[in-house]
Each structure stands twice: as structure tokens, then as C-alpha cells.
Amino acid sequence: MISGTSSWLPATSVSASGKRIQREMVELNNDPPPHCSAGPKGDNLYHWIATIIGTPGTPYQGGIFFLDIIFPTDYPFNPPQVVFKTRIYHCNVEPDGHVSMGILKDGWSPALTITKVLLAVRSLLTNPDPYNAVVPGIAHLYLGDRAKHDDIAAEWTVRFAK
Amino acid sequence: MVSDSIAAAPILSAANTKNPGKKKRTNRSAKLKQYKIDARREQWLSQGAVKNKGCKDGIDDDGHVPSLPVGKHSKRELEKVETRRRGEDDDVSIHQDSDSESPSNSPISSNSSVLCGNDSGTNFTGSSSGGSSSSSSSSGGCYSGNITEEEEDDDEEVEEGDDECLDDWEAVADALAADDKLQTSSQDEPVVETDSSCEVTNGSGVGSMSSKPGSDGVLPWASGNNKAWRADDAFRPQTLPNLSKQHSMPNPDRCCGGGIPWSRNSVPSNCPICCEDLDLTDSSFLPCNCGFRLCLFCHKRILEQDGRCPGCRKQYECEPIETEASVHGGSLTLRLARSVSMIERTLKCLQIIIQQTGPWVVFEHQGRYSTEILC
């Protein structure tokens, strides 16, 4: 329905972004980042599904977190949308799963790739950024009572990510 | 060079006549000289008929001959000829001996001259027999004749040459032309041809001891092709000196060939943003000091949005058109100063950049700017 009205207008940019996304897909297959994987969900090149395995030593260890990556049609000039499909207790992940990261907003650069985005998300799981949190309660807990925060996060990992 | 050798010859001869220890060798070399003169007489007789072919056959020889240094050879030739002009055997022997302070040079050279004459005489057929040796020896002979009799002869056929060989050939060519009263034909020869012919003449005269003129037929150009070697010719003998330094004018072929590989150095082949191939304009486009390269389309697209460099996230310059054009043009002209055609492309490049403000938007609105602007 939407595609009917908007498909032909940005036709050139769609093909350009498609080429770029395909290139990224090839590079991701050739040189996958550690503990990450990503690929198109179906035959839609602009809708990927990715997995991140929780880093050992963090409350997310052992968890397998699924993410949806939705590329805009003017990718890479605009950042992709990265959404956790697996519930996660993290101060920088909105309750609906949207990841709040600088590089996915104003800090986006067209030179960034999905590989780098996944690595950044994985790094965010290791080192949350409570000062730019989207869930203030989790950020407060993280700053005030780190052990309790980690316990809850580990519990969520066991509940939802395994 | 020429005047030096002429002036040096009497002095050396005078010094050597006082040296009785060299008398024996002098006699021997006088004998050799006599043989040589006899051989040359025969060559001179046939010289008129084969003169025009002489150059070609001389070239043949040179393919196999490691030529001696030009200056030494020409000097020796000059001396030999001068002595012959005097027509006295004593003078000949003395000069021949005095000419070579190193004892082995003179006999070898005279021997080689004789051998050259004999070899070419036996191996070449018909009117071209003896052409090689006649060209070499007669060039030497006319050399002195040219100096003594037509010293002020104009040499407009050769461009200014810092090369020793070029000077030598200049005189040799003049001598050839003056000797046979065919100056016009000699003057019409292109410069490059005269250059290589000069080397050839020298080489065949001196180094033909090891040359095998009979194998000349193997070379593809030996059959009547009297054009000179090009520097990039595959069949060009490696013994020939490098001709490239004699090109005083820029060679357009070389410029075009040299410019292309430059532009591919250390420049990504694809735009990191859109993954499209970078064309020449794109690869020479450096919008940010951080060195991040991208194609003009992506750059324009970014300028429409936040205008920050994808590589360093710094803002592009406020007036990117002027600053980029100047920076871009400066770097290009610096790198391409030696290439004429690339400078043209620089101008084209600048035009495209300048077009970014006006026509670019229109093209992009049509959705097919990629083809239209680059054409």
C-alpha cells in the first residue's frame, strides 16, 4: 500500500541503497564479526534479522538476542533502525526494543556499516551508557546498585534469551 | 669534440715521433693501415652506388654490436681520415699509433675496420655489398673532409643535442650529404631517424669484430625499412642507448599513458557510501582534509542533509564549492603538472564541481544525474 505511492519516486536511491546493502551483506558473510550474525529476513533486502550472543562476563552472557534491522530507503544516508526482538534489561534499550545509540541517531555516518553497528550494540551490552539512558529506572539502578542491576539483567537473559 | 681532436692530433704525433720505442709497433700499424686504406679504396669506389643503402645496412649491424663509446670512436675515425687525407704512410702510422695511447685500441680498430669491410663485402649481395662498412668508413672520411673543407656548413637538420652521439651524427650526416651532393635528402630525414642511424654508423664501424652481418636478415625490418628505432620498439636492440632523453618535447603518448595509473593509486575504486565505481572525477575529489573520499553524488547528498564528512564527522566547509574547487584544483595541478591531457581533465573536473550549485540540482531532480553530468 505504501510502496505503491512511494516506490517509484526514490527509485534511484532505492537501487543505490540496495547495492550498498548487498555489498554489506557480502562483506558480512565473508568476514562476520564475532558473536554476531545478520542477514535479510526474507527476500526483502531492507529488513534484516540479526543475532548477538551475550558477551561472557556480563549479565547477558549466554543469551541469544535477536534484533531486527530495518534499513531506510535512503540508506546509508540515514541510519538503520535496530530493534531488539528479544526482551533485554538494558537502560539504553527502550521497552519496545529500540536501541538508543548515538551512532543510530545524530552520530550516524554513511561510512558506518551494519557490521560496525552490531559491534557497537554488542559493546553497549557490555558497557551501558546510563547518562544517555532511555529507561531512567534501569540507569538509576545501574548507577546506584550495580549488583542488583546485574542480577535483574541476568534473570531477564535467562528468561527471555535462552 | 671535433675541433679538439683535430688540434690534438698534430701534437700527439709530434710527441710520438720523438719516441723511438714505439717504432716497431708503428710499422705494424702502418701495415695494417695500408690494408685498411686499400680496402677503403674499394669501398669508396662502390660508395656512390650504395650510399643510400648504407644507412640501412649499418643499422643492421648494430643490432648485434655493442658499440664503443661514441666520442672515442669518432675521434679515432677523425684521425684516421685525416691521415688518409694527407696521403703519407708515415703520417698514417704515426698518427695511428699516437692516436691510441692504450696500445690495443689502434690495431683492433683498424683491424675491425678492415674486417668490417670484408665481412659486409662478402655477406651483402648486389649493390648493398660493402654498404655497411662504406657507410661507416666513408662517414668517418667525410667527417674530416667536412671539418676541413666545410667546417661552417650548416647543420639545421638536427635539433639541439646535448648528447654526444647527436653531435657526432650531426657531423657525420653532414659529411655524408656533402660527399655525395645529396644534402637535401639527408636534411629531410626526421630527427629520430638520424639519431639512431648515427649510433648505428658508429657501432658498425668499430665493433664489427663480433658482428655477423649475415644474420641481419633475421630482423624483420632489415628488408628495406630504413626507419629508425622507436624507443618502445620491441625489436630495438638493447645495445642502443636510451633515446628518451633526446626527446626535448613532451611526448603526448607518454603523457597519456603515465597519467592513468596515477589516478588509481591509493584511491578506492568504489565509493564507500554508495558502492558505485569512482570515475576519474570522483577519485580526484577530496572534499575533506581527513582524506575520506566519496563520489560527488554522495557528497552532494550529504551536503543536503547534515553536511558532515562521513569519515571524520566534521562539518564540511561552509562554502564547499569554492574551497573544494581551489583545494581540489591545486592538488590536481600539482600532481599532474607534467601531463597536458590531465590538466584538461582538471579543468573539466573543476567545471563539474562548480556545476554543483546550479545544474546539479536540476539533474538530480530528474533522477538521472549520474549519466548526464558526467557526459
UniProtKB/TrEMBL annotation, chain A:
SUPFAM superfamilies on file: UBC-like (SSF54495)
UBC core domain location: 16-162
One Pfam family it belongs to: UQ_con
Xref: InterPro entries: UBC, UBQ-conjugating_enzyme/RWD
Stretches of the chain forming a coiled coil according to its record: none
Protein name: Constitutive photomorphogenesis protein 10
The organism's taxonomic lineage, starting at the top: Eukaryota, Viridiplantae, Streptophyta, Embryophyta, Tracheophyta
Gene: LOC101507732
